[in-house]
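From the shared-data thread, chain only:
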Amino acid sequence: MTIAALARKNKSAGPSKAQPPSLTVAGGLRINEASVIERDADRVANEVTAPRTPRLHWSLANIGIEAQRRRTDADGLIPLSQAAANLKCAQDHRAAEIRSHGSLRFRVPATADLKTLFNNGNVPESVLKDRVQTALTRMAEEKRLKSPESVPDIMKKIFPAAGGFDEAEYEKAVDVSDRTKVYQSVADAQTKVAAIDKPKLKTVITDCIKLVAECAADQTNLESVFGSKHSTAKHVYVMAKVALTTAVNHIDSSIETDYNLDDPETGLGGWADYASQHIHLESAVARVTNVNEAKVTIIHEACHLANPTVDDKGYYGGAGFEAAKEDIKVTNAAHFEEIPRRKLGISQYEKILPPKPGVDKFVDEPEPGEPSPIYYDPFKPGASASGAALTFEQKVKSQSDDYLRKAWDKAVDVHGFFRDIRKEELAGHTYAFQAKKKRIMELSKLMHLTVHEQPTNSASINQVDLVLAEGIAHGAKNAYEIGQKASVPTPADMKMSDPERFQIYTAFNKVIEDSIRAAGTITGNYTDDKKLMDWMVAEYRKNI
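Structure, as tokens:
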């Protein structure tokens, strides 16, 4: 869901995203989910309170421990003037490195970066502390801090007095050696697949090419999933095969990944851009940590490259997924996952028991003594897989799922937007910032960043802004997952006798509120969280 680059973002409304790997792999933007197939009541209840696999974590910017030790006073505090000097040294060194090697590989000590801004009068101390506390609070909510102390107590130790920062106390609170906890390099977030990962990835893509060809030739399943649009769906699979063949033969220019681990934080499994025929894969997919997950994700993204009409209009297994209209299914990448999933044995819509008389089946009857085969009910537009009309709960969930999905999708785009501009700034370029300054300031206020708190003429995006933006995408993903499992109040619960559309609207608002509140710290308070989420939905797929 992350925009590959500012230039690419300006070309179109942005690449399609897929959800991070799970047994479900969704749209151009992929949400990182654990197995969606196992949906028994106990597990669902547990998943509402426990992170999924691969686990999504908040990432906190490196509050800056350099390999070279800095001068400290007798109490172990680093004066602001010294922090500023240290950072200037590091920045000068990095700038020279960037210019000489043409690389943006750097590790900016985030707290030193903030303190430099603060020392120069760019970021008031109260703003700095508030933003750092927000980041620490997010980590504490997911039990990712080393220290068992409360965040307010940790803050008192990290910033014990005005103008000082206790580096040792910070190290006690955060494991700065863990890349899943410390934001390190924006360049690594969008980079070529490493040589060590290429062979396995190429093998899986080659398998995907064969699998997509099988899907294109499977008339029975094409009709089962796409109904009257089966011919259109077949053509998408055919063109997905072409796209994958091109990509695997030009892997360095056609496929990239994220070794900075931004994607697991924001819940992104990948994205694809039709215009450039480019695919971005979450690092776990690029490294093929789970073969089936990787295959479904890759096929999902390839379908975005197959036809510009194939977008993300709902993720696999979401509310109303099997009941979507045929025009939606044939333009939604997640629906193109179903046939590959059936062939891989990981569809969540399979039925083990033989169907009742008259129900379509898609395998031969078993021989005597053989186990019962797997069946799939055809997807029926406007109805559940069983053919029953959608319930009140399903209608509400379909709308709330759509809202929360769009908010998450846009939040990932916004994080990518800030990251791209940060990369430009670190390379010494300010054009992108100036061109988008008005929007950056608007977003900074909505997202509680630091940019709008800085003097207009010297404002820039710093590492904490990236961490906070990343955390908002993470929080939006949490809200999305929670909303998928949330209970829907009935008209009786709400004591409403109004027409159904008003009942649905009221119940929808309740699910949205509950999901956002349960997601944890996004900006810091519910009113601002809801305002931000509404903005994300309103701006979904619009240029930033």
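The longest strand covers residues 278-282.
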